[in-house]
Write a structure and sequence with these properties.
single chain; 324 residues; alpha/beta; Rossmann fold; 2 domains; seven-stranded parallel beta sheet; five-stranded parallel beta sheet; 12 helices
């Protein structure tokens, strides 16, 4: 079956410059850099396997004749919310994902955001480009407040692969790590965990690393933001839906929060009128990056290697990273 397996990539441009040679050498592949919603049904027809990152496969598509030959949905990501898993299960279509491939990349990007908040190194670089150093009356430029991370409290919400790596890196900078209990859980506190509200009250920096679920949607809202110190910072490299955008913007405008750095939003790419995009153009205490924390080249290569291994396991009749 391996040589005759037909595979279609629907959004290969999301992998950047990583080669797809392994797929084309082993299987019959068609590669689409991007696929609009109206094109998905036509492009699925006749294929055994579809590889996708963010393209939506809902129940209507999976129940349609376009998906009648589909045997495996290989999600090139950890999240599975863009695929209707129940519809896939009903049609006996296997679904696999790739957990943990970007933990190191996201953790290091999280630390980069924390360091930017602490040092403002990027903004100082922009001042030099603008000629501010040449005009300074002293040997330096002291335009932005900065602080040392050593001795500061880092609150981590979501202590999985990424959260653990962030904690390890932060401790290397001399930070004290506070680990929040799993949001929405009624289970007794595990050793080393603290109630979420306690973490929010004590932390100098709060970093989000939990999945988006009904229990965590808008986890950071008006109530929880009010618990944080006015001098505290918020980092989100997890999911945009964890944060109530309007509440965060208001807290930043009112200086009830010192700053925030976000790599994820509720809609991606965001519309120009997204409240956090608008605010990022106006406020000097808000940084937004374009969902790129995961994108170190090593992580993207690891992602595609894992997708290929998932498909090879499927060909051999084995389950690997199956969510359905």
């Amino acid at each position: 079956m391996s040589g005759n397996l037909s595979i279609v990539f629907l959004d290969a441009s999301t992998f950047g410059d990583v080669s797809l040679q392994r797929f084309s050498e082993n299987w019959n592949c068609v590669v689409h850099e991007l696929t609009a919603p109206a094109e998905v049904a036509q492009r699925l027809q006749g294929y055994d396997v579809v590889i996708l990152n963010k393209v939506l496969l809902d129940s209507a598509l999976l129940d349609s004749p376009a998906a009648k030959d589909l045997k495996l949905i290989a999600i090139a990501a950890t999240g599975t919310d863009n695929v209707d898993l129940e519809a896939a299960r009903a049609r006996a279509i296997r679904v696999c994902n790739v957990p943990g491939y970007a933990a190191q990349s996201v953790a290091q990007f999280t630390m980069a955001l924390i360091l930017e908040l602490a040092t403002r190194a990027g903004e100082y670089g922009e001042l030099v480009r603008a000629g501010a150093w040449e005009k300074s009356p002293i040997y330096t430029v002291l335009a932005f407040p900065s602080f040392e991370l050593s001795g500061k409290y880092l609150g981590i919400i979501g202590y999985g692969n990424i959260g653990r790596r962030v904690a390890e890196m932060a401790r290397g900078f001399g930070m004290e790590v506070l680990i929040a209990a799993r949001p929405g859980s009624d289970a007794p506190l595990s050793q080393g965990r603290l109630p979420l509200d306690d973490v929010l009250k004590r932390a100098d920096i709060v970093s989000l690393h939990c999945p988006l679920s009904p229990q965590t949607r808008n986890l950071i809202d008006g109530r929880t933001l009010a618990l944080m110190k006015p001098s505290a910072f918020l980092i989100n490299t997890a999911r945009g839906g964890l944060v109530d955008a309007d509440a965060l913007v208001q807290a930043l405008r009112d200086k009830r929060l010192a700053g925030a750095a976000l790599d994820v939003l509720t809609q991606e790419p965001p519309p120009p009128d997204h409240p956090l995009i608008k605010a990022a153009k106006e406020l000097d205490n808000l940084w937004v990056t374009p969902h790129c924390a995961w994108s170190a080249r090593e992580a993207r290569q690891r992602l595609l290697d894992e997708v290929a291994e998932n498909i090879q396991a499927f060909v051999g009749g084995k389950e690997r990273n199956c969510v359905v």
